[in-house]
Amino acid sequence: MAEATANGLGQHALHAGHAHEAPAAAAHADVHQEHPIKLYLVVWAWLFILSTCSYLVDYFGLHGYLRWSLILIFMILKAGLIVAVFMHMAWERLALAYAIILPPILVLVFVTMMIFEADYTLFTRLAFFGSGP
Amino acid sequence: MAETLTHIGQTEPRPTGWEGIAADWSSDQRAFKNVSWGKAMMWIFLLSDTFIFGCFLLSYMTARISTRVPWPNPSEVFALRIGGSDIPLILIAIMTFVLISSSGTMAMAVNFGYRRDRRKTAILMLLTAALGATFVGMQAFEWTKLITEGVRPWGNPWGAAQFGSSFFMITGFHGTHVTIGVIFLIIVARKVWRGDFDTGRRGFFTSRTGRYENVEIMGLYWHFVDLVWVFIFAFFYLW
Fold this sequence. Notes:
The complex is a heterodimer of chains A (133) and B (239).
Chain A: H1 37-59, H2 65-86, H3 94-105, H4 107-129
Chain B: E1 3-5, E2 11-13, H1 17-25, H2 37-66, H3 74-77, E3 80-82, E4 85-87, H4 90-114, H5 118-148, H6 162-194, H7 196-199, H8 213-238
Antiparallel strand pairs in B: 1-2, 3-4
Helix pairs in contact in B: 2-6, 2-8, 4-5, 4-8, 5-6, 6-8
């Protein structure tokens, strides 16, 4: 919430630094997200760069662990930028951020389970169907 | 609203960090202190939608790991012939840039909304809707191309039969989300243009007056659609 200032005409602190604590916000019922336009343009540019990078991974035909790790790194960076800046999660209170961001991470447990399950399915297919479907 | 009201009417600053999480959730009041109900509910809806797309991507992963037949190479399947040479995945790359650009214009629309710049907000929202519609159009082109090439939910000419069902399920659901988002954007843009959030005009469905925060809530949905595409692009098209 460091950068969130109270809504009002002329209060859109274009000069607002990142460490700008806004005591004025306390006086208002709603705290609105106002940040300089430049911040969005910078993030936009970064999203373009990261997308180009992940496209180039395919274009140059990298494969194996290099390909997969690069894909995941670019994906996580892009997702992080979108959630943190575009969706303003970086300025929300932690009670909301943790309530929204922690549950999807638990999906990784499900992923692990399904990797074991899929490997087992593949094993039974290989063992019992030979070269069949 | 960065302060807590005590029983004697004095205000004290809210704790931050872990202490803040414990205090907010155990306060016997609402847990999301400075977030309106509309925004909190949109976040919770997006969380549930995350699980839906999570399950789709999980089932795709399971199908792809467990099949014995080679998976069709998306780099070749989604290549386009431009100027006599095949460019891998080019249409998908363009779609990615279109959707990211729409997210950028949406973020700026939210910003101008809070500055009460009605005109710029509405124009940027309509631009976002136009980019979203372009994305859906390109997706329709992609579907048409794949269907004429013989991709069906039960089979395709290049390999594992599950490719078609995963593809139509995942991109179809995402495209539906984009389409609903475009409609939603046009409705909110019209309200902004008409000045509903300045004059306090009541909505026809809810009979409630809106605020410029509605633009931000709309933005949350739109950025989520872009976010899902980041994961689909990585796992379905690039993997």
